[in-house]
Write a structure and sequence with these properties.
CATH superfamily of chain B: Cytochrome-c3 Hydrogenase, chain B
CATH architecture of chain B: Orthogonal Bundle
Strand content of chain A: under 5%
Oligomer: heterodimer
CATH class of chain B: Mainly Alpha
Number of helices of chain A: 14
Largest interface: A-B, 28 and 30 residues
Order of helices and strands of chain A: HHHHHHHHHHHHHH
Helix content of chain B: 40-55%
Number of domains of chain A: 1
Shape of chain A: globular
Distance between the termini of chain A: 37 Å
Helix content of chain A: 55-70%
Distance between the termini of chain B: 43 Å
Number of strands of chain A: 0
Largest sheet of chain A: none
Largest sheet of chain B: 3 strands, antiparallel
């Protein structure tokens, strides 16, 4: 999506437009796929039922039917709600997702922005969604929503730290915070002199990967960390008072964020868009063939679906923690383990 | 730490928490508590129960169940119905195990009339009674998962309960409201193939119990959510008149199926009453799981030696129950359910008092909810297991 991919010099506005369109596609398409494949179908098969079957072949058009239904519904604002804040809250959550996808590289030239501090940026904007959830809970003027919003705030703050610490291991090993360079380091790397698989960090940073995925699960407020939503106690928590389009926005944001976090996890731990560079004899970023710009996004989507599968699998089979148990788990287990992981990584980095 | 010590420890902790919450609320300049209405429309109350909870943060300082939103007046209705008509009403009290509701009423009427159902009818009654217990409690096991956030178990419960409901439908013609029990026996004999089919289904249900034990009860999160939550000690459980699995989970070895001599077939087979010493939410769920498994074994044994003969004793065509009063209670899926029937020699009862298990079981809610956190309210309510029809009648 940069100029060299298109092999033509486009004016700035055209490039910007293309990037925005690309970003929308990169967020909405995976979100829709995740909803259909995992929420509708995989969940149904796990629960010994068929799921949607009527709209389109095997219910494949169900998502359009659902979106159409939500768009028709009345957009209700509670009487005592803080109207302005209530209305922008879902957008804040969705914006966080779009900001996140901006740093994800999809190919050697297929990126939206190539930040030097990409990881730092990613960790920073991922917490913007907390604000959206918190103000949604507060502005709804509903006790359940307030409890949900406050729980979300406590939980997401607790899980930012293990997430950051888990990523630090990767940063130490790659020696860079640029996501594109992290992908390069994994695919051009070698394990004990053997470069047939590159060096995906899931092998060396396995502990970091597990902690990252747990933190992602909490960040997404998916079971077992879905206390802010908690249908059976808080009646969907901060989303209780939302209807129609604004609920749809929350819904899209939930699944789009699951997709984007899977993309980021695949960049950090699974080698991103790349295939081991030794297969084709590439040794620098510039020597990577141009067709990777087409194959790269496909590889990314495959890895994203794989990681989303794990996220959804856990979501559909586990009961939920209690708020204090979750805090205890975050501070007493995940933080110390990730600190030890950083220490070992640093020692090994210096030693080898 | 042994089990009893940890129990005392938990009780002390929850007491201290409640006292602290009280003290905080009584100090001026402290933020005032929030009153949270859980229900009448709330997914955790399986209907229209309302729990009024005063919270300090997320901690419950005071809670009170408010019931009666679904009062249908069955006690009064029985006064204007004839005896055979009453069974159609009362099997709507605990709607998940409806056949079990009919039995104590019919037994009370039979006691007044001094007749007894033939052995085959007693056997079939017991089989259907246990089948409705299985249908009822297996759904509880799935629903428990939903209350704690695991959505998959409930679909497994629905899947396997369906087999049991098919059996009940095959025998009685009604999936939820059989209305099959008659004074002096049963409406009809069992259909052909019922016994073989039931054996297959009982095997499936035992598999379901194993599945639940692995999927739900073996899960660390489930255990940490339920162990030590909502501890009801033995003496308190007895003071509040708990019955059924809630009482047995507090370590009281009390089961009306074994302790009473009724014209039913339970004492003809070999089975075990499960108890648990802890009295917490986990114990209540665990005891119920074991009871489903035990019930499948009871049904299997009953099928082995089911006697032949008629299913209806000789009763007049128009049933008039002689003057008198009778109390019969049985161990229903939710606990002790009994009918006190007063007859003046008419076609219908003069007065009926229905003792339903859930109404007494939720009376402990104010005691047990004091000092717990909001998520634990849901765990405790789920593990106490009430059915709204059974509370409000």
């Amino acid at each position: 999506m940069s100029a060299s991919l298109l092999a033509a010099d486009l004016p700035y506005w055209a490039q910007a437009l293309l990037r925005v369109l690309g970003g929308v596609v990169a967020v909405l398409l995976p979100a829709g796929t995740i909803v259909y494949v995992f929420l509708f179908k995989m969940m149904s098969f796990m629960q010994s039922r068929l799921g949607p079957m009527e709209a389109g072949p095997y219910g494949s058009m169900q998502l359009f039917a659902e979106v159409g239904k939500w768009l028709q519904k009345e957009d209700i604002t509670p009487e005592r709600a803080d109207r302005f804040i209530f209305k922008i809250a879902p957008l804040v959550v969705l914006v966080s997702t779009f900001l996140l996808v901006a740093v994800v590289p999809f190919g050697p030239d297929a990126w939206f922005t190539n930040f030097e501090a990409g990881v730092f940026y990613m960790l920073a904007v991922s917490s913007v969604s907390v604000l959206g959830i918190l103000i949604a809970g507060w502005a709804s003027a509903n006790k359940y929503s307030l409890l949900g919003g406050l729980r979300a705030a406590g939980q997401l703050i607790a899980y930012e730290l293990p997430m950051v610490l888990a990523v630090i291991g990767v940063i130490i090993q790659a020696g860079t915070m640029n996501l594109q360079d992290i992908v390069f380091a994994q695919n051009a790397g070698s394990m004990f002199g053997w470069d047939g698989l590159g060096n995906p960090y899931i092998l060396t940073q396995f502990v970091g990967f597990i902690i990252f995925m747990i933190a992602v699960q909490a960040e997404l407020t998916q079971t077992p960390f879905d206390m802010p939503i908690a249908e059976s106690e808080l009646v969907s928590g901060y989303m209780t008072e939302y209807s129609g389009f604004r609920f749809l926005t929350f819904f899209i944001a939930e699944f789009a964020t699951a997709g984007v976090f899977s993309l980021i996890a695949s960049v950090l731990f699974l080698g991103g868009w790349g295939i081991p560079f030794a297969w084709f004899g590439w040794d620098t970023m510039d020597s990577v063939d141009n067709w990777m710009n087409v194959v790269g996004p496909l590889i990314m989507v495959t890895k994203m679906m794989l990681l989303s599968f794990i996220i959804m699998w856990v979501r559909f089979s586990y009961p939920r923690f209690r708020e204090d148990q979750l805090q205890r788990f975050a501070w007493k287990v995940l933080v110390p383990v990730s600190l030890v992981n950083i220490m070992i990584t640093a020692i090994l980095k210096v030693a080898f | 730490m042994t089990s009893t010590e940890s129990l005392i420890d938990r009780r002390q902790l929850s007491y201290i928490a409640a006292q602290a919450a009280d003290a905080r609320l009584n100090v001026e300049l402290e933020t005032e508590g929030m009153t949270l209405n859980i229900g009448p429309q709330h997914p955790a109350t399986h209907g229209t129960l309302r729990i009024i909870a005063r919270l300090d943060g997320e901690q419950v300082v005071w809670a009170e169940p408010s019931c009666g939103y679904m009062h249908r007046g069955y006690e009064k209705l029985t006064e204007v119905r004839t005896y055979p008509q009453v069974t159609a009403l009362v099997n709507r009290i605990d709607w998940l195990g409806s056949f079990a509701n009919e039995v104590p009423f019919i037994l009370a009427a039979e006691k007044l009339m001094e007749i007894e159902a033939p052995p085959r009818a007693q056997w079939i009654r017991t089989i259907l009674f246990e089948l409705s217990r299985i249908a009822n409690v297996s759904l509880f096991l799935g629903d428990l998962g939903v209350q704690l956030g695991a959505i998959t178990p409930v679909f497994m419960a629905f899947r396997d309960r369906e087999y049991v409901l098919n059996l009940i439908e095959g025998a009685t013609g009604g999936r939820f409201h059989p209305n099959f029990d008659r004074i002096g026996g049963l409406k009809e004999d069992l259909p052909a193939g019922f016994i073989d089919e039931t054996r297959v289904v009982m095997k499936k249900l035992r598999n379901f119990c194993d599945e639940m034990e692995n999927l739900l009860f073996g899960n660390e999160i489930f255990q940490s959510r339920t162990r030590g939550i909502g501890v009801i000690p033995k003496d308190v459980a007895m003071q509040y008149g708990l019955s059924g699995a809630n009482l047995r989970a507090s370590g009281v070895d009390w089961d009306l199926r074994r302790d009473q001599t009724l014209p039913m077939a339970w004492n003809k087979v070999d089975w075990k009453v499960w108890t648990h010493p802890d009295g917490d939410s986990f114990a209540r769920c665990w005891v119920r799981l074991q009871e489903v498994r035990e019930s499948t074994l009871i049904v299997d044994q009953l099928l082995d030696n089911i006697p032949s003969g008629p299913v209806m004793a000789k009763v007049p065509r128009i049933i008039k129950v002689p003057e008198g009063e009778a109390w019969v209670s049985t161990e229903n899926p939710l606990g002790e359910m009994g009918y006190y029937v007063v007859s003046k020699g008419d076609l219908g009862p003069f007065r009926t008092k229905i003792r339903s298990a859930s109404f007494n079981n939720i009376s402990i809610v104010p005691w047990v909810l004091k000092g717990v956190y909001v998520p634990d309210i849901i765990t405790i309510l789920a593990s106490l297991y009430f059915i709204l029809g059974d509370i409000d009648r």
